[in-house]
């Protein structure tokens, strides 16, 4: 049996968790890659606990890093098979972390980068009680190949939280067209999607994208503010 996920955490600035933000890192990184975002967002989200779990597998392409699933680029369904394989362990981690901070599932938000965005969208849209929000940087809403398979996958969706997609317009790893394709595929099944294209940015997160993401979460957690 695989070991449970774990990673760096930041406790709430106010001392008592009222929200939980889970960061999901990209291919070849680890939990330390995104946890600093929690420090940047503490003033916006003083009641949020932050955690950034390390992905479950060592990364073949980056021996010091981790991966949610392997990438060979030889199988057109590789990403779809990968997110499905990794999903149960991530779902279990989210439930355990909510229990740790004594919060109900709707007080959760997911923030992913690249492969972590693929996981955030796949898992977040399939939770019994949906998260408050999902923010995806430089990623893709993964769906299978084939119209029948896409329709079947759409039927798996159990929650429709607000989603913000952020992408660099000079991303040469996952092209910015992926943002628009992902927004369209989610909008088609009733998921409310907003997006932001960061000018002059490659496969990364700039200050403007960071500001948009933090503000989006703050509004999702506190809709009356």
Task: Describe this entry's structure for a reader.
With 225 residues, this protein is an alpha/beta fold. The protein has 6 helices and 9 strands. The protein has helices spanning 35-41, 78-100, 115-124, 147-154, 177-187, 207-221, and strands spanning 9-10, 19-24, 48-51, 57-59, 62-67, 108-113, 133-137, 163-168, 193-198. Helix 2 (78-100) crosses helix 3. The protein starts with 8 loop residues before the first strand and ends with a helix. 42% of the residues are buried. The mean pLDDT is 94.
Topology:
Layout: E1 9-10, E2 19-24, H1 35-41, E3 48-51, E4 57-59, E5 62-67, H2 78-100, E6 108-113, H3 115-124, E7 133-137, H4 147-154, E8 163-168, H5 177-187, E9 193-198, H6 207-221
Parallel strand pairs: 2-3, 2-6, 6-7, 7-8, 8-9
Antiparallel strand pairs: 1-3, 4-5
Topology as a string of helices (H) and strands (E): EEHEEEHEHEHEHEH
CATH class: Alpha Beta
Measured as a percent range, the helix fraction is 25-40%
Name of the CATH homologous superfamily: Alpha/Beta hydrolase fold, catalytic domain
Structural class: alpha/beta
Give the second-level CATH assignment, the architecture. Answer: 3-Layer(aba) Sandwich
Which regions have little confidence, pLDDT < 50, spanning 5+ residues? none
Treating each run of at least 4 consecutive H or I residues as one helix, how many helices? Answer: 6
Q: Give the averaged pLDDT, no decimals.
A: 94
| Overall shape | globular
Q: Roughly how many Å apart are the termini?
A: 44 Å
Strands, count: 9
